[in-house]
Amino acid sequence: MIRSMTGYGMADAAVAGGRLQVEIRSLNHRHLNLQLRLPPELGPSETQIRDLVRDRIYRGSVTVTASWLALPPGAVSVRVDLERARQLAEAMRLLKSELNLAGEVEVGLIARQPEVVLVEHSSGLEIDPAEVAIPFEAALEAVIAMRRVEGAALAAELNRILDSLERGLEAIERRAPERLSAARDRLRRAVAELLDRPPPDEFRLEQELALIAERLDIREEVVRLRSHIDAARGAIAAEEAPGRKLAFLGQEMLRELNTIGSKALDEEISRTVIAMKGDVDRFREQVENVE
After folding, report:
1. Helix, strand, or coil here: 28?
2. Range(s) of the domain holding residue 202
3. What pLDDT shows up at residue 198?
4. 28 φ, ψ to 5°?
5. 61: which of 55, 211, 241, 280 lies 20 to 30 Å off by Cα?
6. Residues 117 and 225 in one domain
7. Exposure pattern of 27-58 as b/e (b: 16+ CB <10 Å)?
8. Pairwise CA distance, residues 45 & 52, whole Å
9. Number of domains in the chain
């Protein structure tokens, strides 16, 4: 069954003695556009995380954000640059003295200055890859579950559109033979009016009618259009990520309808083709949401 490209999932788990939260958001995109926002401690695990996502999600703009709810022991260290703090304190006292300013130079003011209190992430923290995978896999499951639910709704709507296309195609098939007979009658009447009498060469007239019938024949287009509709139904029912295939089929359905419309020379078929083009436009619009 197809899946939507829109989804959201969040999970957290114990990792390296801390607690890691993972949030995944997925939106529509022609390809897989994966963005990772990871804390420094997970830098060595980036390739593993990318592979986890790519194995489960094939299309969409996917943003993966990981953050610590509780830091692992030894994940960060705090260091004070005393020399810089002394220089800042002396500079502020000088500023107070020279400009006759009120107030005291306090520790909070010094600590807030850049590069005085330094928080450093440990580069030697060892994290088990199996532990890292747990919250990411759980968040991916939540995203995929949501994409499947929306995919079921998309499948129902796409099948309704295909039903409408089939009804239109059946109407065209019923009307096509009548259209050829009407075209023959119109040509006979036109020739008779021009000559002001019945055509002198009935055989030649039949030849011309046969050529017109061949040019107006839409049976091949009808067969191909029905084949595209059947292929779309099969992809919707059996494939998990048929978005590109469905987009191609929508394009081909429109191509066949354009040809049928250009050959129609019949008001009823032209109206049906216009309605079917509207269905194909809705089909292609919905397919943009399919993975």
Report:
1. coil
2. 149-287
3. 59
4. -70, 140
5. 280
6. no
7. eeeeebebeeebbebbeebeeebeebbeeebe
8. 11
9. 3
Show the tokens assigned to 79: 């260091």
Instruction: Give the tens place of pLDDT for each residue, 180-192.
Output: 666 666 666 666 6
Cα separations (Å) of 89 from 100, 188, 200, 216?
16, 106, 116, 92
For residue 213, the SS3 value is: helix
Model pTM? 0.73
Q: What tens digit of pLDDT does each residue of 8-31 get? A: 999 999 998 889 999 999 999 989
Is 159 among the domain residues? Answer: yes
Spatial CB neighbours of 144, under 8 Å, sequence gap ≥ 6: 3, 7, 9, 56, 57
Tokens (6 digits) for 256: 């066949």
Q: What are 103's strand-pairing partners?
A: none
Return the amino acid letter for 81. Answer: D
Low-confidence winner among 52-56, 65-69, 204-208, 275-279 (lowest mean pLDDT) = 204-208
Q: How far is CA 289 from CA 6, 62, 126, 141, 159, in A?
A: 7, 14, 40, 19, 15
Structure tokens at 164: 């409408």
Q: How many residues are listed for the chain in this entry?
A: 291
For residue 207, what pLDDT band results from cuts at 50, 70 and 90?
low
Do 193 and 175 lie in one domain? The reply is yes
Q: What is the pLDDT of residues 30-63, one digit of tens each?
A: 899 999 999 988 888 999 999 999 999 999 999 9
Residue 226: predicted pLDDT: 96
Residue at 208: amino acid letter: E
DSSP reduced 3-state for 4: strand
* Whether residue 215 is found in the same domain as residue 242: yes
Are 7 and 244 in contact, with CB atoms under 8 Å apart?
no
Contact 147, 3 (CB under 8 A): yes
Report the C-alpha dihedral over residues 28, 31, 37, 38, rounded to 10 degrees. Answer: 130
